[in-house]
């Protein structure tokens, strides 16, 4: 079960981070996406994170060339999967897209390859069958990889139980803290709790009970947190948050999804586009005056 080569599907926010940490941990990594622009942006994101890791003393400058050398980016799925021991999928949070991707992967991946998905709120049982290898399939869900380091391991009913200790070991090698979700549950452990917070914040905003800043301040000051629910949403990405909120049938979630859509339509997707509820790289909530 020794893993050498990992294949990351989706070169967005999370795919890039998982790929980078995998290389830092010594794995050889291929990153696949359907968009050229996403691959270019992924490399820039990785270089930016590496510089931050050097600045904070976690890595030395002379380690960077070999870390980048272990990563390759490609638009060709067959090339991406060549010799892959494990696939980690971080494509757009839409069940039809995931089904399509896993159908292709099932046809091209080597027989021994383990399959994992980083879906935030879907269940792996919704698309594991499409891969043709549901036994080799498990949810392996990261949060932000570098700052928030819990990784959820959530098998579905047909997952080979041997995957759990293998993923626990891989999670630790990737500098994460693994936790096991004993049965399928949308949102795993942390996101289930986080959605309750975000849902409440969204309700306070859409019902015009309080401003974005005052909602965030309340959370930050009382819990000694570096950001509040709207800062968190900016870091997750408002498009990803919309996919989740939009799929919830209750009126409060629908009202919040409608509000998120107004930001998305203006290209304001959060930190990754430079603007969401706050503007980046210096969002107001990081200003020490914000909570005085
Ligand atoms: N953003 C987060 O904080 C976060 C945290 C944990 C898990 N996730 C999950 O990770 C996944 C990706 O989220 P993200 O925030 O990185 O999204 P993102 O939009 O930043 O990246 C998604 C990438 O998938 C690519 N893509 C779309 N269709 C594809 C296809 N058919 N084949 C290959 N690539 C394709 C897109 O071009 C894009 O680059 C989602 O399932 C999400 O729920 C996100």
Task: Give the SSE layout.
Layout lengths: L4 E5 L3 H12 L3 E5 L3 H20 L8 H6 L1 E4 L2 H5 L4 E4 L5 H14 L5 E4 L19 E5 L8 E5 L8 H11 L3 E4 L9 H17 L5 H12 L5 H8 L1 H9 L4 H15 L27
Parallel strand pairs: 1-2, 1-4, 2-3, 4-5, 5-6, 7-8
Antiparallel strand pairs: 6-7
Written overview of the protein:
- Helix 1 crosses helix 2, helix 7 packs across helix 11 and helix 10 packs antiparallel against helix 11.
- The chain folds into two domains: 176 residues, NAD(P)-binding Rossmann-like Domain (Rossmann fold, 3-Layer(aba) Sandwich); 93 residues, N-(1-d-carboxylethyl)-l-norvaline Dehydrogenase, domain 2 (Orthogonal Bundle).
- The protein is α/β, with parallel strands linked by helices and 292 residues long.
- The protein has an eight-stranded mixed sheet with strand order 3-2-1-4-5-6-7-8.
- 44% of the residues lie in helices and 12% in strands.
- The site of nicotinamide-adenine-dinucleotide has 27 residues, from helix 1 and helix 5.
Query: How many structurally independent domains?
Result: 2
* Uncertain spans: none
Beta content comes to 5-15%
Q: Can you tell me the CATH superfamily of the largest domain? A: NAD(P)-binding Rossmann-like Domain
Biggest sheet details: 8 strands, mixed
């Amino acid at each position: 079960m020794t893993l050498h080569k990992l294949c990351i599907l989706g070169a967005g926010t999370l795919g890039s981070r998982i790929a980078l940490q995998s290389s830092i941990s010594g794995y050889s990594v291929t990153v696949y996406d359907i968009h050229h622009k996403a691959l270019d942006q992924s490399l820039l994101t990785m270089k930016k994170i590496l510089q931050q890791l050097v600045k904070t003393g976690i890595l030395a400058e002379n380690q960077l060339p070999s870390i980048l050398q272990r990563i390759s980016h490609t638009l060709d799925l067959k090339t991406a999967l060549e010799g892959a021991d494990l696939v980690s999928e971080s494509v757009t949070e839409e069940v039809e897209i995931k089904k399509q991707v896993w159908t292709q992967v099932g046809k091209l991946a080597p027989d021994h390859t383990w399959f994992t998905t980083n879906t935030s709120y879907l269940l792996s049982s919704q698309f594991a069958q499409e891969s043709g290898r549901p036994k080799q399939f498990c949810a392996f869900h990261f949060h932000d990889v570098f700052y928030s380091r819990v990784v959820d391991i959530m098998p579905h009913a047909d997952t080979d139980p041997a995957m759990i200790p293998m993923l626990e070991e891989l999670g630790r090698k990737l500098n994460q803290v693994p936790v096991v979700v004993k049965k399928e549950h949308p949102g795993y452990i942390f996101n289930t709790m986080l959605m309750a917070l975000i849902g409440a914040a969204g309700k306070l905003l859409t019902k015009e009970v309080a401003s974005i800043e005052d909602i965030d301040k309340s959370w930050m000051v009382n819990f000694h947190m570096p950001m509040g629910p709207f800062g968190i949403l900016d870091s997750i990405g408002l498009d990803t948050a919309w996919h989740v909120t939009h799929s919830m049938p209750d009126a409060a979630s629908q009202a919040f999804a409608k509000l998120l859509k107004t930001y998305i339509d203006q290209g304001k997707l959060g930190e990754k586009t430079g603007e969401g509820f706050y503007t980046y790289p210096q969002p107001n909530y990081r200003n020490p005056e914000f909570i005085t």
